[in-house]
Amino acid sequence: MLEPTTTQLRNSLRQTFRERRKSLSLGEQQEAAEALLEHYKTLPITTGAKRVAIYMTNDGELSTLPLIDFLWSQNIEVYLPVLHPFCDGYLLFVSYTKDSLMLANNFGILEPILECHKICPVLELDIIFTPLVAFDEKGNRLGMGGGFYDRTLEFVSKRNKCESNPSFNKMADVSTQQKNAPTLVGLAHDIQQCLSLPTEAWDIPLPYIVTPTRFFNFTHNM
Ligand SMILES: Nc1nc2c(c(=O)[nH]1)N(C=O)[C@@H](CNc1ccc(C(=O)N[C@@H](CCC(=O)O)C(=O)O)cc1)CN2
Ligand SMILES: Nc1ncnc2c1ncn2[C@@H]1O[C@H](COP(=O)(O)OP(=O)(O)OP(=O)(O)O)[C@@H](O)[C@H]1O
């Protein structure tokens, strides 16, 4: 019998892990969302963040609503992903406030309506919390299969690698005043962890993953 291809394996894992998170009860979802918020408050990587991209919960994903309320209460600017209207497969990050008018995208996920002055360029964000379907012990991320985050964040990941190189400032001749690239942090239920994911060349591994109970730092792998 033929071995399954990487794409087949990834699709099968995607199905399994989507079912797994969708089978959580409403009570379990609410508990997880509250625990995530309490956990967030203890995390050193979020200290000083002023502009944070996050997501509108869909498909059994870890709910971000209590966290978003908390970010607003701290006067931290919140941004949500919006499907790019011209560049297929890319995301824009648009300001989300209590007054935002929302519209469902092609996948039924609510997005703030797109107004140019409300877009935050990716490099001006401090943290990007990404949704994910499954993650493994190295920080590899399996998403919904559209490649949106992989495409949009490809240059951020390359830049972060550069910045962790001690000779970066000399090589690129940039002043230390230049803002760092945003920190990429995956958000997930604990049950979304697996041992090892089959990866593809375009996958962007995550340096950090936060669950309601655990904080993973994968920067030593990068
Ligand atoms: N909450 C949230 N927002 C997000 C993402 C995400 O994963 N979660 N995305 C992360 O990239 C982008 C949207 N990507 C998505 C890709 C596929 C499907 C989806 O439901 N696919 C259906 C098939 C739909 C169709 O073919 O029309 C499916 O697989 O059942 C949803 C979102 C941007 N916003
Ligand atoms: N940087 C990129 N440039 C061009 N195509 C890409 C890039 N990243 C991903 N893709 C394409 O997107 C498709 C889906 O990729 P993948 O299965 O890794 O998505 P995903 O990480 O699960 O989804 P998402 O990031 O939207 O949550 C692949 O067919 C791949 O060819």
From TrEMBL:
Gene3D superfamilies: NagB/RpiA/CoA transferase-like. InterPro entries: FTHF_cligase (IPR002698), FTHF_cligase-like_sf (IPR024185), NagB/RpiA_transferase-like (IPR037171). Keywords: ATP-binding, Ligase, Magnesium, Metal-binding, Nucleotide-binding. Its cofactor is Mg(2+). Signal peptide: none annotated. One of its GO terms (molecular function) is 5-formyltetrahydrofolate cyclo-ligase activity. It is an enzyme of class 6 (ligase). The keyword Metal-binding applies. It holds the Pfam family 5-FTHF_cyc-lig. The keyword Phosphoprotein does not apply. It catalyses: (6S)-5-formyl-5,6,7,8-tetrahydrofolate + ATP = (6R)-5,10-methenyltetrahydrofolate + ADP + phosphate. Its EC number is 6.3.3.2. PANTHER family: 5-FORMYLTETRAHYDROFOLATE CYCLO-LIGASE (PTHR23407:SF1), ATPASE INHIBITOR/5-FORMYLTETRAHYDROFOLATE CYCLO-LIGASE (PTHR23407). Belongs to the 5-formyltetrahydrofolate cyclo-ligase family. This is 5-formyltetrahydrofolate cyclo-ligase.
